[in-house]
């Protein structure tokens, strides 16, 4: 792994993108991300993930310098499809993923952050999809995920003008969960990832599946009731209920 470092802290994995100066998402960075998430899927000690960037930015997007070596529109399409697949893996990951965004999350950087389940930002961060400035459009599902968070009108404005939101504005528009002064961001993000990692991996997995299932309301209800019953039958479900009755903290084992 050249550009992603993984540090395990208790039941949380802290991933850092380390590709100065802008943590641009080259093909290799995207491959490394896919491979790290593949490993973490099978790591039963890890129950929640925090993703952040080294240096000045979370990530300034796909590697624009690498674009000059792409030979055809077809190859560009395949670059987008590959990125979309990696980000879908992250969104459908069975463990919660938090992005801690400082400096800038632009283009592919914001698309990566939008595939995470929770976004925490520094107040002065810049979050935007400036691809129209390059004569392009977003290619890692930005046109599809951004309106989900901010609505179509605001997403249109962000795309058409290439003007980023600040971290504070991103919270107001529902794109980010909380904004903090930059020097507090990582500490706050770690507090949240450790809080989440105390939950049962089974109920975390089911919650993600239901939040992102994307089907009809009635289908969602059926699946919710099914998972509710399965969790009731699990050791963790029994442990959680006993712990409440016995006025103690639950100890979840993921079974
Ligand atoms: C499917 C996905 C598509 C995409 O994601 S397309 C890319 C979308 N992203 C962008 O358009 C953002 C481009 N970058 C910027 O707007 C600016 O940069 C920043 C706001 C991030 C920072 O501005 P400042 O503080 O003035 O620094 P600086 O001198 O522009 O950048 C520092 C170094 O970082 C390199 N860099 C920045 N973004 C990228 C990038 N996306 N791909 C490759 N390199 C990048 C620059 O070139 C430079 O490098 P050097 O010091 O060698 O000149």
Automatic annotation (TrEMBL):
<comment type="similarity">
    <text>Belongs to the enoyl-CoA hydratase/isomerase family.</text>
</comment>
<protein>
    <submittedName>
        <fullName>Enoyl-CoA hydratase</fullName>
        <ecNumber>4.2.1.17</ecNumber>
    </submittedName>
</protein>
<dbReference type="InterPro" id="IPR018376">
    <property type="entry name" value="Enoyl-CoA_hyd/isom_CS"/>
</dbReference>
<dbReference type="GO" id="GO:0004300">
    <property type="term" value="F:enoyl-CoA hydratase activity"/>
</dbReference>
<keyword id="KW-0456">Lyase</keyword>
<dbReference type="Pfam" id="PF00378">
    <property type="entry name" value="ECH_1"/>
</dbReference>
<dbReference type="InterPro" id="IPR029045">
    <property type="entry name" value="ClpP/crotonase-like_dom_sf"/>
</dbReference>
<dbReference type="InterPro" id="IPR001753">
    <property type="entry name" value="Enoyl-CoA_hydra/iso"/>
</dbReference>
């Amino acid at each position: 792994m050249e550009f992603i470092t993984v540090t395990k802290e208790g039941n949380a994995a802290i991933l850092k993108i380390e590709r100065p100066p802008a943590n641009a998402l080259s093909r290799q960075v995207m491959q490394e991300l896919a491979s790290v998430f593949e490993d973490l899927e099978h790591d039963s000690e890890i129950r929640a993930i925090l993703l952040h960037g080294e240096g000045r930015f979370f990530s300034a997007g796909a590697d624009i310098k690498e674009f000059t070596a792409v030979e055809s529109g077809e190859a560009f399409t395949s670059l987008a499809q590959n990125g979309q697949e990696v980000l879908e893996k992250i969104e459908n990951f069975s463990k919660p993923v938090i992005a801690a965004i400082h400096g800038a999350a632009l283009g592919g950087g914001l698309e990566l952050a939008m595939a995470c389940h929770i976004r925490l930002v520094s107040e002065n961060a810049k979050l935007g999809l400036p691809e129209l400035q390059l004569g392009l459009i977003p290619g890692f599902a930005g046109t599809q995920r951004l309106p989900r968070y901010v609505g179509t009108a605001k997403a249109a404005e962000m795309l058409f003008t290439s003007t980023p939101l600040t971290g504070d504005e991103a919270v107001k528009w529902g794109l980010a969960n909380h904004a903090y002064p930059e020097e507090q961001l990582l500490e706050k993000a770690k507090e949240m990832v450790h809080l989440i990692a105390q939950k049962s991996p089974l109920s975390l997995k089911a919650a993600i599946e239901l939040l992102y299932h994307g089907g009809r309301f009635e289908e969602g209800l059926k699946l919710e009731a099914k998972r509710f019953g399965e969790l009731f039958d699990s050791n963790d479900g029994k442990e959680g209920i006993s712990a409440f009755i016995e006025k103690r903290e639950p100890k979840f084992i993921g079974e």
